[in-house]
Amino acid sequence: MEMITTVSGMQAWSDVRRAEGRTIALVPTMGALHEGHLALVRRAAERCDDVIVSIFVNPTQFGPDEDFDRYPRDMERDTTLLSEVDSSIVVYAPGVREVYPDGPAASLTWVEVERLDRHLCGQFREGHFRGVTTVVTKLLLACKPDEAFFGLKDAQQFVIIERMVRDLQFDVEIVGVPIVREEDGLAASSRNAYLTPSQRASAPALFHAVRAVERQVVEGEQRSEALVESMRSILQEAEGAEIEYAEVVDAESLEPVDRIRPGQDVLAAVAVYFGDTRLIDNVFVRAPEAA
Ligand code: AMP
User: Fold this and answer.
1) Confidence (pLDDT) at 291
2) Which pTM was predicted?
3) Which of 82, 153, 277 should be mutated for ligand 1, with most atoms under 8 A from CB?
């Protein structure tokens, strides 16, 4: 499996492939790969001739009290998993100094999408989305893909990146891939590995909460307060769960919704702590049109 670790090496590789008329997909990840990541990779391989999977634990999207140091890293396992999907995948794995030559803290240039980062996770993870949009910009400039693949598991990230690409007129198509779940509904996540057995047993409550909202919206419930209440009561019953937020927002602006309009696309999203481990889940749902 080919691995590229420098920006200039990655750009040169993409220039050659593009000159040959081949289409290039980028799947950005932080490694610790699981079925959720592999679904993105498979989708990318269906749509493009060449697939780049970037593996980079980006320091600028972690807050000072977050899990940057303990985030799971296992390059050998990740490359083995990828080669089982497709041995022609190229891994782009730059070091921190390659991406941030002066060190992350000394960087003076940032990409920031306004307003959309004020809601949901953004209220609690200051600077997180600025780190994400900055690193995704750097990855797009290094890899020069035709299409880039993101999971809907990180719904706010997806909405923000789509908006960034539109506002900055990047020549790339952003493709969203549905959430991959374990058999009991828990969304696959690198952070699930931190859960104790009893936390793991309670964790599908996030899925049950957002699925309950999906059902109620489809059945015509318009009052956001009632939907939030039902998510909270499901989460409160899960042993060891501490709710960070449970919200229903507009799917495009991410502004909280009071009363859902007929035909409106909304996003129900939750973030919950089990001990130090923070899990998220969500569902996009369209309200029925007026009868
Ligand atoms: P991460 O390595 O956590 O930064 O995730 C890399 C990409 O994989 C992001 O676009 C995530 O949204 C996506 N992803 C992570 N978990 C899942 C999942 N369970 N289902 C679908 N996509 C996922």
Assistant:
1) 67
2) 0.97
3) 153
